[in-house]
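User: Sequence in, structure out. Go.
Assistant: Echoing your sequence, followed by the structure tokens.
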Amino acid sequence: MTGAPSEDDPSSWPSVLVGLVGAGIQASRTPRLHEREGARQGLRYVYKLIDLEALGLGTSALADILAAAERLGFAGLNITHPCKQAVLPLLDELSPDAAALGAVNTVVLKGGRRVGYNTDWSGFAESFQRELSDVGRNRVVQFGAGGAGAAVAHALLTLGVGEVVLIDTHVERARDLAAALNRRFGADRACARASLPSALARADGVVNTTPLGMAKYPGMAVSAELLRPDLWVADIVYFPLETELLRQARARGCRTMSGGGMAVFQAVDAFRLFTGREPDAARMLRHFGEM
């Protein structure tokens, strides 16, 4: 007769196998964040990195990766750049948020089905509410209109931002995202612009949702000379926590928000989806800080 799992015997704990699919993800802190919370919950929680760059693969490998994960008993996969939109055709179902955003960062594999979710937008929203709840929200300039950009823009408009101005090197992508946001939130809530100085002139805040600022992609989405003390500046990059954009913004007196909070709170929501258990968000924040 098999007894209940023993608190002193990790080998008797229920096992959970999950992973992260993306390119250039070796420095990700997500595995340790999930695994530490899993251990505190009495789970043998194993989180694997599936780095397309390290494997010499492109997004065309996603179909094989998903099939392999199902065969190996993965509970699910987190999905990051550049796969958040490429994975959509490979899924059986999307949550309402993921369908509206057209981007997925969490796939739950259960009962032979692949269900896509987006916890990026809720992770950003929670972090914003905790760190920048009292800032001006009339107009926000956002750099990036990809999968992460779609999630952040959705969060900003959900949080009451009057207008989101999208700037992206792919102009059509910015226009398409603006049109989708206006259909969901109402006319003139989002627009695509090419002229950065004029867009910033009446802005309350700036958000970077591009990879610029990562250790692998050094640089800034906006010139430091365009930053001014009355702007708040947020970045979704969390490795490093202090990007060049945030460093320059702080030096000019701007309030800032790093990508750390979004990284933790999207992980909180993903952990819940993978395990069906309620994670301890405060504990996960502490774990992240200790890293």
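User: And one key feature?
Assistant: The first strand starts at residue 15 and ends at 22.
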